[in-house]
């Protein structure tokens, strides 16, 4: 293992995905260490880069940064299966002779301390074909196909790309969270105009939700990537999905805001942009200021990180195309996450055609005050 070259994969701050482009895409043996430099898994592969990327998706965004910190790789080009296996066995033996234990990822599945995620495979089930043999020929047929799919599948994700090959960062992040939970789900590729012609527009109209991905559970819109992330981090998403596939309710628990009082003062910076060089951000901040009693507003332009993005280029956008927005306002009191975001999208109806991707976080003053306590 001393001859292995170490690599330090980074985390994409926009999608939460593990970036593995620096790892070799050759056959060889590799060892993965966590943030505490504890060995988690020793593997052998015909494509180390692909295998480590698969581990990242199986582990999920909540833990991947702490579990995949360093990867030591020994490239063995042109070697046969027996040579790879022999090196792999020697690494495990050397590790144990040096006083180490069998890594959690290499333990038998039912053994104490085993972490079977290291050998899990990402979902390769193809996305649904809503058009069927006859195809979709009209917007009305697209709308009917969307409604039928939502009613017929307990957990359904409308996404860009397929589970095996997401075609945008938000769809990839959502697939990672669903994969981590491990509940079976169906997906619809809204970019597949042959199988799902018109579905991209139809699903947006059906749920009055302007962005993709969209997750439906038991026929109800859960939301997009931002809401899904919040629910996943709180544990509510797993509960909703498991209840749905087992025939239970998909409703999430309501937050308890008792004891938190809003005195009307700012709870953070209020980012009102007035810059003629940033017309979209300026219009966005002005519109939100006019429609909400802002206690905090943060607008971050992430366009530079997505330079050349295919979706933005498709829309003719070359700048100010990707934003992250956080809003704290009392108007969100008593609203579900979906209702909150719909309220913001309605206010930004003039701005949304100018934006390719909007990451949105909405909070009430009481929620912010609870965290502060």
What would your notes on this structure say?
By secondary structure, the chain is an alpha+beta fold. It folds into 3 domains: 5-119, GIY-YIG endonuclease, CATH 3.40.1440; 139-245, Glutaredoxin (3-Layer(aba) Sandwich); 279-372, GMP Synthetase, Chain A, domain 3 (2-Layer Sandwich). The chain contains 12 helices and 13 strands. The chain has a 4-stranded antiparallel β-sheet, with helices on one face. It is globular, with a radius of gyration of 23 Å. 40% of the residues are buried. Residues 252-258 and 308-317 have low confidence and may be disordered.
Topology summary:
Elements: E1 5-7, E2 10-11, E3 18-19, E4 28-33, E5 39-45, H1 48-59, H2 64-67, E6 70-75, H3 81-97, H4 139-152, E7 155-159, H5 169-181, E8 186-189, H6 199-207, E9 214-217, E10 220-223, H7 225-234, H8 236-245, H9 279-291, E11 296-301, H10 310-314, E12 322-328, H11 337-347, E13 357-363, H12 365-372
Parallel strand pairs: 7-8, 12-13
Antiparallel strand pairs: 1-6, 2-3, 4-5, 4-6, 7-9, 9-10, 11-12
Helix pairs in contact: 1-5, 4-6, 5-7
Structural class: alpha+beta
- Judging from the principal axes of the Cα atoms, what is the shape? globular
Mean pLDDT: 85
Question: Tally of extended strands?
Answer: 13
Largest sheet: 4 strands, antiparallel
Which architecture of the largest domain does the CATH hierarchy give at level 2?
3-Layer(aba) Sandwich
CA-based gyration radius: 23 Å
- Low-pLDDT residue spans: 252-258, 308-317
> What order do the strands of the largest sheet run in, or round the barrel if closed?
1-6-4-5
CATH homology superfamily name of the largest domain: GIY-YIG endonuclease
Question: For the terminal residues, how far apart are their CA atoms?
Answer: 48 Å
By oligomeric state, this entry counts as single chain
Number of helices: 12
Supply the CATH class of the largest domain.
Alpha Beta
């Amino acid at each position: 293992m001393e001859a292995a070259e170490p690599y330090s994969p980074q985390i994409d701050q926009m999608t939460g995905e593990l970036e593995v482009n620096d790892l070799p895409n050759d056959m060889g043996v590799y060892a993965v260490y966590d943030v505490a430099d504890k060995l988690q898994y020793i593997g052998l592969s015909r494509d180390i880069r692909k295998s480590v990327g698969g581990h990242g998706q199986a582990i999920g965004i909540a833990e991947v940064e702490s579990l995949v910190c360093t990867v030591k790789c020994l490239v063995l080009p042109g070697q046969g299966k027996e040579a790879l296996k022999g090196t792999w066995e020697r690494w495990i033996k050397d590790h144990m002779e040096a006083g180490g234990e069998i890594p959690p990822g290499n333990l038998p599945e039912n053994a104490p301390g085993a972490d079977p995620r290291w050998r899990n495979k990402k979902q390769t089930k193809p996305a649904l074909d809503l058009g069927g043999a006859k195809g979709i020929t009209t917007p009305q047929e697209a709308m009917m196909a969307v409604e039928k799919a939502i009613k017929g599948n307990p957990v359904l994700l409308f996404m860009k790309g397929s589970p095996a090959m997401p075609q945008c960062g938000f769809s990839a992040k959502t697939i990672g969270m669903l994969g981590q939970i491990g509940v079976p789900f169906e997906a619809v590729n809204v970019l597949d105009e042959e199988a799902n012609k018109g579905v991209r527009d139809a699903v947006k109209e059906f749920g009055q939700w302007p962005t993709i991905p969209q997750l439906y559970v038991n026929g109800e819109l859960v939301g997009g990537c931002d809401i899904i992330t919040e629910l996943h981090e709180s544990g509510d998403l797993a509960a909703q999905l498991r209840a749905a596939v087992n025939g239970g309710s998909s409703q999430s628990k309501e937050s308890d805001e008792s004891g938190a009082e809003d005195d009307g003062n700012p709870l953070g910076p209020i980012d009102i942009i007035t810059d003629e060089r940033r017309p979209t951000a300026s219009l966005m901040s002005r519109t939100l200021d006019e429609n909400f009693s802002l206690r905090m507003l943060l607008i971050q332009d992430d366009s530079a990180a997505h330079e050349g993005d295919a979706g933005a280029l498709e829309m003719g956008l070359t700048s100010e195309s990707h934003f992250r927005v956080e809003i704290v306002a009392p108007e969100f009191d008593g609203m579900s996450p979906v209702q909150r975001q719909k309220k913001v999208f309605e206010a930004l109806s003039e701005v949304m055609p100018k934006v390719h991707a909007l990451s949105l976080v909405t909070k009430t003053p009481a929620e912010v005050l609870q965290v502060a306590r």
